[in-house]
Design brief:
Elements lengths: L2 H26 L10 E7 L10 E4 L2 E11 L6 E7 L12 E6 L6 E6 L13 E5 L4 H33 L2 H34 L1 H24 L1 H31 L1 H31 L1 H31 L1 H34 L2 H8 L1 H31 L21
Parallel strand pairs: 1-7, 2-6, 5-7
Antiparallel strand pairs: 1-4, 2-3, 3-4, 5-6
Helix pairs in contact: 8-9, 9-10
Length: 425
């Protein structure tokens, strides 16, 4: 074999091997070296975890794209991840899907998982931005678990202290004796309840027909009551309406009363203060009255006895008066008729008095002349003066007659002799 033919075969073999290597690289590459058609989406998350470039985007375990790049937002609080998705999966990656950073196993490589939603909308447009849930953070969970353990430790200490207190106080010998006594009392009570239930069963068994009759009558009464309610439904509805109106008026009244109390709070406070002072004085007066009654108990008992005697006599007098009224009903009727006649006479006298007053006002008659004529008034006044003097004399005369009689004769006056002169011895 010539040297040129051998070199050709070796070169062809190397070229074939390189082609196979290139095909295998493209076949097993994560990105396909950019030779496959893709469309991009932007995912926003608070923590990218250990996601790197070319990390896969999986949906139900199937690779539908890869991570192209990622960058921080302007304030550095979030991460923007640019992913490239294969267009053949655009029919399942629609509005409603959820993006979440997941891990392979517990501590494996992380990837972006796509989870379908309950409903599917339109296909996701290229270049749009969507939220992405951050990965599971073991450190944060550890911190939370550490805090939880601290709280559990504190709770265990409190429980231990509580158990110690229960063992010391609640489960002491005295407490156990009380619990034993309570259990014994409960046993006795349960036995009594058992006896009572047995008696009730016997009573129900004995009075079964009567209870059945009572239930039937109660059912009939319920039917009658239902019929009465249906028959009087308008009245009941009107009553309920009136009650609601009354409650509304009462609520309005309470509001007005609250406003009045708020407006007149100082006056109410003063009144309450005065009432408190009055009650204190009343309490003091009651104490003094109690002391007075205790001091004058015999007098009070005598007064009460007299009041009781008087009430008995008053009851007797009332009975006698009722008997007198019953016996003299005819006379009382006649007296009432006479009073009616007298009332008519008084009415006539009143009319005559009105007529006389009118005549006096107009100056007619004797009385009118006395009031209007000055000369007649003076003459009448002189006559009255003379009559008054005469009446006084007659009064004195009558008084003397009553005191001494008509045949009284005054005794003659005794002459007083002057004293004799004393003879000289």
């Amino acid at each position: 074999m010539s040297g040129g033919r051998l070199e050709f075969k070796v070169g062809l073999f190397v070229i074939v091997l390189l082609g196979l290597a290139a095909v295998m690289s493209i076949k097993f590459s994560e990105t396909g070296f950019g030779l496959r058609d893709t469309y991009s989406l932007t995912l926003r998350t608070s923590n990218a975890g250990t996601i790197i470039r070319d990390s896969p985007v999986l949906m139900s375990g199937v690779k539908i794209g890869y991570v192209d790049s990622f960058d921080l937002t302007e304030d550095g609080s979030e991460v923007l991840i640019n992913v490239e998705l294969y267009p053949e999966y655009s029919k399942v990656v629609r509005e409603g899907v959820t993006f979440r950073i997941k891990s392979t196993g517990f501590l494996g490589d992380q990837f972006i998982g796509v989870f379908p939603g309950e409903t599917f909308g339109a296909e996701l447009a290229e270049g749009t931005e969507h939220p992405c849930e951050s990965p599971f953070d073991v450190e944060q969970v550890g911190q939370k678990v550490s805090g939880l353990i601290d709280r559990v430790d504190g709770a265990v200490k409190k429980i231990d202290l509580l158990v110690g207190n229960v063992n010391t106080n609640l489960l002491s010998s005295n407490s156990m004796e009380n619990i034993t006594a309570a259990i014994a009392e409960f046993r006795v009570t349960s036995e009594r309840l058992n006896q009572i239930s047995t008696k009730i069963d016997n009573l129900i068994t004995t009075n079964g027909p009567a209870l059945t009759t009572g239930v039937v009558e109660l059912s009939a009464f319920a039917k009658e009551l239902r019929g009465a309610v249906q028959a009087n439904a308008p009245v009941i509805q009107a009553s309920i309406t009136n009650f609601n109106t009354s409650m509304a008026n009462f609520y309005e009244f309470t509001e007005q009363l609250r406003e009045a109390m708020a407006t007149n709070a100082p006056a109410i406070h003063t009144s309450v203060t005065n009432f408190s002072a009055f009650t204190r004085r009343l309490h003091a007066s009651a104490g003094e009255l109690e002391v007075l009654i205790a001091t004058n108990a015999p007098t009070v008992r005598s007064a009460l006895s007299n009041i009781e005697t008087f009430s008995v006599k008053l009851d007797k007098t009332t009975a006698d008066l009722q008997s007198t009224l019953a016996n003299n009903r005819t006379n009382i009727t006649a007296v009432v008729e006479n009073l009616a006649t007298a009332t008519e006479s008084i009415k006539g006298i009143t009319q005559n008095a009105n007529r006389i007053l009118m005549e006096i006002e107009s100056g007619q008659g004797l009385a009118g002349g006395l009031l209007k004529n000055e000369e007649m008034r003076l003459q009448f006044q002189a006559v009255l003066t003379n009559l008054n003097g005469t009446a006084i004399h007659f009064s004195n005369l009558a008084s003397n007659l009553n005191a001494r009689g008509i045949f009284y004769k005054p005794k003659p006056e005794r002459l007083i002799n002057p004293p004799r002169s004393v003879k000289p011895k």
